[in-house]
Design a protein that fits this description.
Blueprint: H1 13-22, E1 24-27, H2 29-33, H3 40-55, E2 59-60, H4 63-101, H5 110-134, H6 143-152, H7 162-177, H8 196-211, E3 215-218, E4 227-230, E5 233-237, H9 239-249, E6 253-256, H10 258-265, H11 271-295, H12 297-300, H13 304-329, H14 336-356, H15 362-385, H16 390-411
Parallel strand pairs: 1-2, 1-3, 3-6
Antiparallel strand pairs: 4-5
């Protein structure tokens, strides 16, 4: 039966080992653009891994990835170059707002406060100015582009002609109507951009047919038209994708996020590097989620009654998770599960602050649901991987039950 429904099964450890030896590793646009977002140490580590794959002749990108990379590269560079001035303007606005909005405050000496703020912030501003001066000048000399070009020289696919592109777009209309992955989540994008994922997918299939090699895609796209997800956790590529790859190319298919890929590729890679890659991925996930909501005004905001109804639930969830993390931190636990819990806890605290500052939109609710589901998943992993004292174990199980109930309420409004 497994052979008949192979697309629904995870690979065994031995199958994964064989897959990594034989596969062609394909990188999507976001994984390349993120080279402009990582620290220089992380970029250096990442490029070492990519060069190792190149030496093994296991690296390739579709033409669509190269095209999107060049289309978006300048915007990504400009965004980060402009971020320093944006932060400085926020600090300046804070000083001005206090002076103009509260100039007649009867109990505060605003002249003294302004002077102390200026003295304190001047140190911060100098740090930001220094970082701005030291930021790579990629518009003038782009070492990232140079290395990417060297890596993918002779390792980039060819473009489709206009007739083939029209045919794919026509197929895409029907596929998107029937929710056939990938790409249907982009249906609300402009006409010239909505079929990018489908074009990329067909180019990957064509390469798999030609090379007869299994495909491992390293992707920054976390939409549900690529991943099978359960309780906020990505489990594997959608079975439909695995099946289509096997039927059309006769090979296996798998996906990793960039952080998981690096983590599995070399266990010696520093945890700080993995953490940074994961953090950038999650920030990009949130940015993409915001963009998708901006394209659909009706999905962006929650009705006030829904916000009011869930405010107590929000508070209760934060209290449960905070109290639990306090108990866990009191124990001598040194494991990757605890690190994962701490990471998710900080993401949840960020959402708490966002909600408390009036950002009670659907994005906040979706993100809160996602991270609390992942938090529960990490808790279950901790229970099964560590010998915990009975009191803590009882507290975790009680908290899991409460979090699940609250998440069930949130789920109704997603």
């Amino acid at each position: 039966m497994k052979n008949t429904f192979k697309e629904y099964h995870q690979f065994s450890d031995q199958e994964f080992s064989e897959l990594w030896k034989k596969s062609l590793f394909v990188f999507d646009t976001n994984t390349l653009l993120n080279m402009y977002r990582y620290s220089r140490n992380t970029v250096s580590t990442y490029f070492k891994v990519l060069n190792d794959l190149k030496n093994k002749k296991q690296i390739w990108i579709p033409y669509q990835v190269g095209f999107e990379f060049y289309e978006r590269r300048v915007d990504v560079i400009a965004e980060y170059e402009g971020s320093y001035d944006s932060i400085l303007s926020i600090l300046e606005k804070a000083k001005t707002d206090i002076e103009t909005k509260y100039k007649d405050h009867p109990f505060l000496d605003l002249c003294d406060i302004k002077k102390k703020m200026s003295d304190g912030l001047s140190v911060v501003e100098k740090v930001i100015e220094k970082a701005k001066d030291e930021h790579p000048k990629w518009m003038d000399k782009d070492d990232v582009l140079l290395q990417i070009n060297q890596l993918f020289q002779n390792n980039t696919g060819i473009n489709y002609d206009e007739k083939e592109l029209i045919s794919i777009r026509n197929e895409g209309v029907k596929r998107y109507e029937d929710k056939i992955p990938p790409g249907y989540k982009d249906d609300k994008k402009p006409e010239d951009k909505k079929y990018g994922d489908l074009i990329l997918w067909y180019q990957i299939i064509d390469k798999a047919k030609e090379s007869r090699k299994p495909i491992i895609l390293i992707s920054g796209d976390v939409k549900e038209d690529w991943w099978l997800q359960k309780n906020g956790k990505r489990i594997m590529p959608l079975p439909q994708l695995k099946k289509e790859m096997r039927e059309k190319a006769g090979v296996d298919f798998h996906i990793y996020t960039a952080d998981r890929f690096l983590e599995f590729y070399d266990k010696k890679i520093d945890k700080t590097t993995i953490s940074e890659v994961r953090k950038i991925r999650e920030l990009e996930e949130e940015r993409m989620m915001i963009k998708r909501m901006e394209m659909n005004e009706n999905e962006r905001n929650l009705e006030p009654r829904i916000v009011d109804r869930n405010t107590i639930n929000f508070l209760h969830l934060f209290e449960i998770i905070s109290a639990l993390m306090m108990k866990i931190n009191q124990e001598e636990i040194h494991s990757i599960q605890k690190e994962e819990l701490e990471h998710l806890y900080h993401r949840i605290i960020y959402l708490r602050n966002r909600i408390f500052h009036g950002k009670n939109d659907k994005l906040s609710l979706m993100s809160l649901h996602k991270y609390s589901q992942e938090f529960m998943f990490a808790l279950n992993n901790l229970i099964h991987s560590e010998k915990l004292n009975p009191n803590l174990l009882m507290h975790i199980r009680d908290s899991l039950e409460k979090i699940e109930k609250l998440n069930h309420n949130f789920r109704k409004y997603l």
